[in-house]
Design goal:
Order of helices and strands: HHHEEHEHEHEEEEHEHEEEH
Distance between the termini: 62 Å
Number of helices: 9
Strand order of the largest sheet: 4-3-5-12-6
């Protein structure tokens, strides 16, 4: 039982032992993988369970299995070890060995695809480039930019005033994405009155304002049915590719290369896509990244 009244204390050895047992579901193999004895592994697991106040494994004479709490704790243990390892590495670096760091935020895979050619060119410019990429919901990642946990934020331009600087990279038409055998796929372009069938609506906190607004208009228009709500862009892509329905999203250049047909929607304004940053805080590598992104999208 945890006796620390809300606080708990774990060490990396406990976490390494836990992840090894979770992987092998065998204490002997786990002990071999972490190079300590089996009784020592058992002790580390027991002390970790006492500290957390839950059982992580069900142990019998013949088998080992994870409890519900054990399954839930895997991602936490991996994250804690990752942070600890990263901190140890940074603190052990000599100043002359310090890599060129750049921290970039984006919201989903569509925006992440924008980075591939830019990072390729950046790696030619900086031999010791060490990029860090953060994918978080729209509102959460704005706070990270404000707190300077990220230097650059790829995003559709917000209709609301932001306390950041903004450089536009491109204008993005709103598209309908559906399978090539979907009834809508026969059209070269669509008016809002043309929409029918099953829409996939992306939840407001994970999509641009323009997408949410158009979804609302589709709902008011009344021709759609059996609305399916998707938690994010990736869920909508997966469901659309499975033929469950269609969804609308701004097309960022030619970043989407999947099997869905992308149909332009008439009568809606293009959406600005670009980079948010704090100009007063920009380091040279972040300025170079913006310059490279602008060059790519100027082509």
């Amino acid at each position: 039982m945890n006796k620390h009244k809300g606080a708990f204390f774990v060490n990396t050895v406990q976490l390494e032992c836990f992840l090894a047992v979770a992987q092998y579901l065998n204490f002997s193999k786990a002990a071999e993988s972490v190079s300590i004895t089996q009784p020592a592994v058992s002790h580390q697991i027991g002390s970790l369970e006492d500290e957390l106040g839950v059982k992580l494994f069900v142990r019998t004479s013949k088998s080992v299995s994870l409890t519900r709490e054990g399954i839930m704790f895997i991602s936490d243990a991996e994250q804690i070890l990752k942070i600890a390892g990263s901190a140890k590495f940074r603190l052990s670096e000599k100043p002359e060995d310090e890599p060129v760091r750049i921290s970039i935020g984006c919201h989903n895979q569509a925006e992440l695809n924008v980075l591939t050619p830019a990072l390729r060119e950046m790696s030619r410019l900086y031999d010791d480039l060490l990029p860090s990429i953060h994918i978080l919901p729209f509102k959460s990642i704005d706070n990270q930019l404000k707190d300077q946990k990220i230097q650059l934020l790829l995003s559709f331009k917000s209709p609301h005033k932001q306390p950041f600087d903004y450089t536009e990279l491109c204008r993005c038409p709103l598209m309908c994405l559906c399978t090539k055998d979907h009834p809508l796929a026969a059209a070269e372009s669509l008016d809002i009155e043309d929409f029918s069938g099953r829409p996939l609506f992306i939840e407001r906190h994970t999509c641009p304002e323009e997408v949410f607004s158009f979804q609302h208009k589709l709902l008011a228009q009344g021709n759609v049915e059996k609305i399916t709500f998707c938690g994010d862009y990736e869920s909508a892509i997966t469901m659309a590719e499975a033929g469950i329905g269609f969804f609308v999203y701004p097309m960022i250049g030619e970043t989407y290369r999947g099997p869905l047909k992308c149909i332009p929607i008439n009568g809606v304004r293009e959406v600005s896509f670009g980079v948010y940053y704090l100009k007063s805080q920009l380091e040279k590598q972040a300025k170079d990244m913006i310059r490279i992104l602008k060059k790519i999208y100027a082509k």
